[in-house]
Write a structure and sequence with these properties.
The chain is built from 8 helices and no strands. The protein is an all-alpha fold.
Length: 271
């Protein structure tokens, strides 16, 4: 019960702190902003370590193995792992990372690049991290190029090549609208010819399609934000009751008084 009340007060404080930016920048907003950034970074770092780094990197370098079955280089290799196990038996349990991963020493490259990336913490040798960054940027560019070329270019072109008449009136109208929208949109972005005459009229149709698309996208985004706002307002109303110690009213009064006093003091200092 006490944890629920404490959570309600924290939720109300952070919500009102963010809303306080509507008046002006203030310490409450800055505190909530820093908490949000810090918690988000910690959350994603934790998720990435336990879901990606531990099973896909350490799990492939030191998969779970019976010590009696180790031979050759792996005898020495798992002795190194015992050092990691001594540091943390939660992250590095005894006899390797559990799972069905196959051992692959190719992942040593990823481990070395990851260590290079951490060198940014030491300014004198921070330049080593450029190797890791270069690999990440090059790898991401190659993968994204293939992905975007397939999904955003070739698939879009293929999806635009449609029959005008399909035998069904509704489907045919949809195809015609799609073809007209694509062609007129391409006309609008073709700037090598002056947009006059027939060319200008077709490009204007393209503008209409673009505006409808932007309007629909903006409306969708606003609807999503409005639903978030409604959720926060419902929480503020719920936590304003006696069972939560009138958290909304108490924190609202404290914030308003503090912000007004701070503003008056800043104005006096400026004068």
């Amino acid at each position: 019960m006490y944890t629920d009340v404490f959570g309600a007060w924290v939720a109300v404080f952070l919500t009102l702190a963010i809303f306080s930016y509507l008046y002006k920048d203030n310490p409450f907003y800055k505190l909530a902003e820093h908490v949000y950034v810090g918690v988000s970074a910690a959350h994603w770092a934790t998720i990435a370590f336990w879901n990606q780094v531990r099973p896909n990197l350490f799990g492939r370098l030191w998969p779970h193995a019976d010590p009696e079955t180790l031979t050759g280089f792996n005898v020495f290799w798992y002795k190194l792992y015992k050092g990691l196990n001594w540091i943390s038996d939660t992250v590095f349990p005894e006899n390797g990372i559990p799972g069905n991963q196959e051992q692959s020493f190719m992942y040593l490259i990823a481990l070395i690049l990851g260590i290079f990336m951490l060198m940014r913490l030491f300014p004198s040798i921070g330049w080593i991290s450029r190797w890791s960054l270069a690999y990440v940027v090059g790898m991401a560019a190659g993968l994204r190029l293939y992905g975007y070329l397939s999904s955003d270019v070739l698939s879009q072109i293929q999806g635009t090549i449609l029959p005008v008449w399909t035998g069904n009136l509704g489907d045919s109208i949809n195809n015609i609208v799609l073809i007209v929208g694509v062609v007129s949109g391409l006309f609008y972005f073709f700037f090598s010819v002056e947009h006059t005459g027939v060319f200008g009229k077709i490009s204007r149709v393209g503008i209409y399609f673009l505006m409808i698309t932007f309007g629909a996208s903006f409306g969708f985004a606003v609807m999503g934000r409005i639903s978030l706002l409604i959720g926060r307002l419902k929480d503020l109303i719920q936590f304003s009751g006696r069972e939560y110690g009138y958290a909304t009213f108490v924190l609202l009064i404290i914030m308003v008084v503090t912000i007004l006093m701070t503003s008056r003091k800043d104005k006096e200092v400026a004068e």
